[in-house]
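QUALITY CONTROL LOG
STEP: pairwise intake check
CHECKER ROLE: data steward
CRITERIA: each record must contain a sequence immediately followed by its structure tokens, with no blank fields

ENTRY 1 OF 2
RESULT FIELD BELOW
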Amino acid sequence: TSTVSVEPTFASPRLGLIGRIDLLMVSPSDPHDRTVIELKSGSAPKGERARASHHGQVVAYAMLLEQADPLRTGKNMVWYPAADALPFRDISVTVEDRRNVIQARNRIVMLERMIAQRDTALLNSIAGADPGSMPRFMQDDVRHLAMDIANLTSTERAYLRAWLSFIAREQQQQRQDLAKPMWTNTSEERRARPSAMTDLRLSPDGVDADHGHLRFMRLRPTDECSLRKGDIVLAYQVEPDGTADPSRRQLLKATIRSIAGDTVEISLRNKHVDLAALAEASEWVVEQDATEGGLRDLYGNMGLWLRSPADVRNVLTGSVRPRMLPPQVVHDHRLRDSQREIVAKALGARDWFLIQGPPGTGKTSSVIRALTSELLATDHERVLLLAFTNRAADEICGVIEREHGPEAYLRIGSKDTSGHGRSVHGLGATLDARQLSSLIASTRCVVSTIAAMTRNLDVLEHGGFTTTIVDEASQVVEPQIIGLLASTKRFILVGDECQLPAVIMQSQESLSVDVPPLRQLSLQSLGTSYFARLMECAVNHGWHDAVGRLTEQGRMHERIGSIASELWYGETLRPMLPWQTREQPWLEVDDAVVLDMCRDRAIRMHVPAHGGGPLDEAYVTAAVAARIDDAAKTSGADVSIGIITPFRTQINAIRTALSPMLRELITVDTVERYQGSERDVIIYSAAVASPADLDALSSVTTTVFGSIDRKLNVAVTRARQQFILIGDNDLLLGSGHYAALLRRLTPIPAENIVV
């Protein structure tokens, strides 16, 4: 007669705990009467008690429910369905039980802090541990782990400590940046967080019970928001008194399916939630999920590296020269000569090969396509294609479908984040386990994001991969990828260290590495991508046969491409296609002002930082976009426009200044969100109001081409036909990188547009 909730999630900041209960039974006559049932599929212990670890788990759930409802009554039980007698074991929750749970929780936090501080005692204690003193189900794992650590060299131990500390510090920073603000109660504090959407109401038809989807109306759609499609979020209700305390109710974990205008739709992870009861809530909050276990998966990745043979570890760390065979014959005649040469060298690599691909050089459409086709034409090859983002993974899927048909590959990933139907998740709905296992084992090409593959390592149990190709590799740090690469015979990394680096939450100071053996591996900062470190290793050691650089780009007009070539690529880039060298205005329109702008593909407009009215920078940016859009439509041209700006407040100001129609057509976003995209016209609103803002604009690093600004590179190279920089020139000249760019841009008075 009770209402049964399946896998509801509860959290408490006071206890420092979060947990998902298997079954929660609520009495229909008393809402405080809630019984916890923890389901255990294994064998039951003899007698009437539960196993100690199961007992502690149920105690923790009971404590979470007490925080949510201080008047809570009801039983706490462990359910052993395999037991012939007493399948349900009652758990009494004592003060000592509660104390033991908190002590265990604090012990875990202490160990995480030891890892973060690179404490050598921790690895030493594991290496010297006595497995016999531990529960039987852990003994083999501990014994193997101790042996693996004992077999490491001193350099490998330093490498392992450094990356374990990196993971632990990322976890700590994530909790500080995301989890801590979640517990603020006032609506003003919630609205100030860009990682949260507030003032949400369920749409009248917003409950899709069959698929577990909720669609909300955004009452404040212009509020600053950093959430995007595919992001993992938490949803929770606002209480009638206006407070939003997630510890008082169950948390809903979800993935954002879409954000469009004044609506947002989410897909619940738990499809068993009572959606009818949720519809009674009048107001909701959706915000980024800091409880997601993605960072914990990185420990498993390091474990795969740790368990690999010594010669594999040496190859992965760059301690030894990668082995090369002579370049292979490439049969794809659609490649340009420079592309064919690099593909041939990559296929000759026995261990690893790096391909630097500047913007528009055909990394995916030509090089990855050719590599995949050549490998699949060889019977013994099985290919794993990885990308950092779902967008890039879907692009790879599209290339393979066009080349080999939809049956040639499988996509790892959820249906909410993958844009392709050929996904293991989707096929699992129609195939039984045996059929799905057979399909995975027989498919010679698998595509996934790095994160999704790390969460689905059991795919590796259905047959190994001979070659792994990683796109967007310059955005990936070693713990994200090294375990997957340890499970393949060779790998090819495709990236560009001159574009955006990996996203790191912790401070730069904590990333510094001052260990001589690691510096010999070119590991001086844990914020450096694996691609960039191996590239530096290859350059420093003269392993030039392990590196290929693409130099012909087909995206940008020569005027824009030459700026990128001079500033960021050592004058190595050159145009690939005839249209890129045309000199006439790229857009023939009747609007004389727009026509004058189109005579030069790279221009700048000076707008004073504190100008008001028509010379407000957001207003000017929106006016330029509107003027180009109107002129193009009048002349019958189809022109795509993108607006990039570094600050979320400026994003909101520009969106507010745009007409509702242009708001739907033009993406206004940060340069990080634009990497991998392109538009005919890119308008870059610098939005610098003081010299201090210049730091936020920049991502400066040193490459073989010298000191470069990676963010500026990405902003400029998104443009196919025209790049327009809008900002206060006097302030921008305070940066040497912006000063170099400004010298190469043609000035156009902003007054021409807005007056």
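ENTRY 2 OF 2
RESULT FIELD BELOW
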Amino acid sequence: MQANIQVENKEDLTHSKGDAGLVEIWTKEIENASNYEKKWRDEADANFTVYNNEGQSEDRYNVFWSNTQTLRPLLFSRLPKTNITQRFLDSSETNRIASEMMERSIDLYLKDSDAETVISKCRDDFLIGGRGVARVCYDPEEEVELEDGTKEMDDSEKKCRIEYVDWKDFRMSTDKEWCNVQWIAFRHYKSRDELIEDFGEKKANAVELNATRLSDNTISNNKNKTDSNELFKMAEVWEIWDKESESVLFLTIGGSGVLLSNEEDPYKLRDFFPVASPLGSNSNPIDLRPIPLYRQYKTQAEELNIIDTRIRSLVEQCKVTGIYSSIAEASDMEGLFNGNDGSFTPMLSTGNQKVQDLIMFKPLGEIIATISQLNDRKDRVIFSIRDITGISDIVRGVTTASETATAQQLKGNFAISRIQPLQKELEFWTRDLIRLLCELTVENYTVEELAQMTQLKIVDIKAIEKAEQLKLDALLNEAKSLTDPNNPEEVARLEQMNEQAKNQFQKTMKKPLEDLKGYAITPEQIPELEKLIKNDKLRTFAIDVETDSTIKIDQQQEKTDRIEYIRSISEFSNSFFPMVQAGIITPDAFKQFMLFISKPFKVGRNVEESLIAQEEQEPKGPSAEEMLAQAEMEIRQQELQLKAQKQATDAQFTQQELDIKKAALLQEQAIHQDNLEFEDSNKAADREHQLVKDITGARTALMNAQAMAQTENLNQTIRDANKQTFV
């Protein structure tokens, strides 16, 4: 009758008050949850025994271990890479900095807590027992005492981390859906020293050490153990997260249970619990009790083990043995069965009986036929197991030469369709766990701590600008005070110094502005950044926390879609681009056609966004009037250049004429002075004078020809430009 009593709330579970009442309530809650999952827990424990081949014969055909080893790398093979980005591409610098800050800190904590090992253990628990559990933890800064007796906070051990939880040490309320779970609990085993360190000496001494750490590091509950050595004796402590009261309790259960602590929510997480929905919670459509994969083919696996054992036993019996009649001579039997190759021995008298009647061999034909039948049955059972699990030959690396490529592809696609739900569950669970780690990090760290930890640069643009401006103003004021306003040279020098000061200011500000384009922020943005990362709604709306794919198997369909998209774009471009060049369709129409082709393809959406963004950012081309004005300006510039070249040529000709006249005058003076010289000398002077005149004339004619050619080329350029302008 007592078992049929119904309760309406937790208070109905006890008549005690205070701490004793809480201990009694949670003792019954945990016992009820354990009984609710007892059948599954016994099954999971048996699965681990089979998987590890413990307590079984050494010749067991462990197909469960084989299938699990095949699935392990397909579900998870490496630590996922976090991908924390802005949820919307709105070019918000604060959102960009916040996402990068969170990604850097999470990458650090994932590696620091050896998250790859944690996730691997949870994956194995999920594949073997049906449930995998991991939690996020926050280790706060500790108060340490210095040599002078003062105390200060040591933040060297302050960190957030991911921690593995043994499936045996996890309990939760008996609800049908994870969103309705009211409490979860973690079991710990603590020594007396650990109890004193965590909860104080008074409460620690009141706890009964009712568990023992054995030599193989396992825990044994033994309340009747009388071993006086407490070095290996432990206490079973339960950490309970009660969502209804938003509190965390530590207590021991049972008749001598003790409430060790009762604190308010320490993490302030949005969904309260420091765990994501355990792996395997979605395997059962009825409630949260997992359905292990091994349950679906356990009968076939046990039959396979029996068949394999029988085959090995029969193989051991496949020996050429027999019996012979006692009246037969021993020497005859020895020569028959143990003689050397090609040796013959005389047979002694056997009476009136035939030799065949004196000997009987073991019936190996029947044994071999039985083995053949068992092997056929073994193959059929293995096929049934693979049919149930969906692990095809292709996934296992086995194929047949006679199979076509289409048949192999069908096998691979079938295996992918069966394995993908398991892959997705673990992938989403990992992402949810990382999201919890992100939330825990931003809740327990200040922006300044995160900035220092992730090496965020704080660039005070206003302070740098002000300091540089004051420095340059001081130099200019000093130079101005020393400048004579009536001296044009000093005034020009002051203006030059002003121009140099502007250039120096721009050069100085260039580096801080470049820094802000990277992982840097201004002091004015810090309050906005803090508001964003501390507010759950704002952070969730602005920042998206995802991971890259943890799937190792080839996604053939996605590759096919990408190849089809590229082929469609290539064919379209080859067909339409010549029409764009010919002016039949406009570039805008070409882009619209390309967008039209990209829309049906999922892989083309990013390209579509890029095309739209490019279309918006591209500057518009000049109008016809602007092009005509630009052409006229270019013609004027060419005319001015032509005039300048002509003036330079004229000046050069004038200078050459002056040089010639000067040379002639000097020559005449030399001739007048040398009138008294010999006649041959006069003739030589005449010849030299004539040579100078000839060289000068030839040079002048050459330069005139070059000037006329340049003038003709410039006129042709002007005519061509006018034609293009009118066209």
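INTAKE CHECK: passed for both entries
DESCRIPTIVE NOTE, ENTRY 2: The first helix runs from residue 18 to 36.
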